[in-house]
Amino acid sequence: MFMEKVIAYTRVSEAVRKKLQEKYDVIYFENYEYLNDPKFVQALKETSGIIGLELKVTKELLDLAPILKIVSNVSVGYDNLDIEELTKRNIMATNTPEVLTNTVADAVLGMILATARRIPELDRFVKNGEWKQYLQLEHFGLDVHKKTVGIIGMGSIGEAIAKRCHAGFDMNVLYYNRSRKQNIEDEFNAIYSNLDDLLKRSDFVVLMVPASPQTEKMIGKEAFSQMKKTAIFINGSRGQNIDENALYDALTSKQISAAALDVFDIEPVDSNNPLLKLDNVVTLPHIGAATIENELAMSNLAAKNLEAGLKNERPVNLINTDIFITK
Ligand code: GLV
Known about the structure:
The chain has helices at residues 14-23, 38-46, 59-63, 83-88, 101-116, 119-127, 156-169, 182-188, 195-201, 221-226, 244-252, 292-310; strands at 5-9, 25-29, 47-52, 70-73, 92-94, 148-152, 172-176, 191-192, 204-207, 232-235, 258-261, 281-283. It has 327 residues and is an alpha/beta fold. α5 crosses α7. Glyoxylic acid (GLV) binds next to loops.
């Protein structure tokens, strides 16, 4: 029986890969050297669908994939895809919004608490045997409850963060977004703000916008200079959205007090990145969506999108909605 070929790469849960294997000829790449890998290039030539996390889908890659119908991202972000090029070639692109919302919001709250209460730093302090007397003021953190959080980017993840900050920590919520969201204002007393005011007034500045040419390095020298000296900056979005050098300067000159980064300009982060040397930065390996439960939920949704696309049907999470679909 003829089975269409599918490339699965990096993070597609094993259970979902097994299900796909019943219907498709699935070739799985856990580690691959992209277009330098002859096996990967050969698979591209024959594949109708691609499913996985953060494969750079460029014009060059698409030139090698003549019968490709769909690229199904196991992520909400799709800055890895050249949407214009995919659309030109009438290839569907999908992502996995909503399923990961609460998982990512949990991680962001974790980063807020970790930086404010200096949890990773003090964990190292205890394990290094440095806790020899009652805790001194120099190791004290800052309160989270009743503080002001400024959320830049009020998509569903931003909303889930606002909910937690308001309901769980009695915080004041400011937000900056392309459009106003009445429900956030009604439910979480959130205040719509321009970016300058948000930066000036927030104790915690949380960046949650997708990566795009418009958001590239949107938080840089100028933005850090507007923040409070006690401000804590949290990036749960994409590394490209901030200027890492400017953040380093802001942290070392005590322009702001601390930061937590789940994402970096280059991932995996270069071990020589100077930010990794600072005690007042919590660094994480892009854990936002990475829980066991959510991995399965995202993989399942991505597989549904893939299957629809392979049947020439419209997937629920189609990104390039203006392409021509036969069914
Ligand atoms: C995670 O970063 C995602 O885009 O899903």
